[in-house]
Amino acid sequence: MLSSVLRSSRAIQVNIEIMRAFVRLRQMLQANAELARKLAALEKKYDAQFKIVFDAIRQLMAPETKPKRRIGFRGE
């Protein structure tokens, strides 16, 4: 927000890079959704012998979930 309010050349460049990052993020999410649709179509086309392969690919496509750290005092 601040980079769009300031009028320096550096603030303008930062604002442009922020917009480019959001565009890349949107493209990556769209590509992942398209890949999931194609995988679902392939899964319908082939029989159960490839189920292991499709499950492995879905597992690789899933975002990593890291356990959240608890913040604050821990009384014992």
List the helices and strands and how they pair.
Layout: H1 2-5, H2 9-45, H3 51-61
Helix pairs in contact: 2-3
Mean pLDDT equals 77
Q: Give the overall silhouette.
A: flat
Low-confidence stretches: none
Strand elements, count? 0
Mind telling me the C-alpha Rg? 21 Å
Structural class based on helices, strands and sheet pairing: mainly alpha
- State the major sheet: none
Helix content: 55-70%
Distance between the termini: 43 Å
Please, how many helices?
Answer: 3
Describe this structure in words.
- This protein is an all-alpha fold.
- It has helices at residues 2-5, 9-45, 51-61.
- It starts with a helix and ends in a 15-residue tail after the last helix.
List keywords for this structure.
76 residues, single chain, mainly alpha, flat, 0% strand
At a glance:
The protein is mainly α and 76 residues long. 68% of the residues lie in helices and 0% in strands.
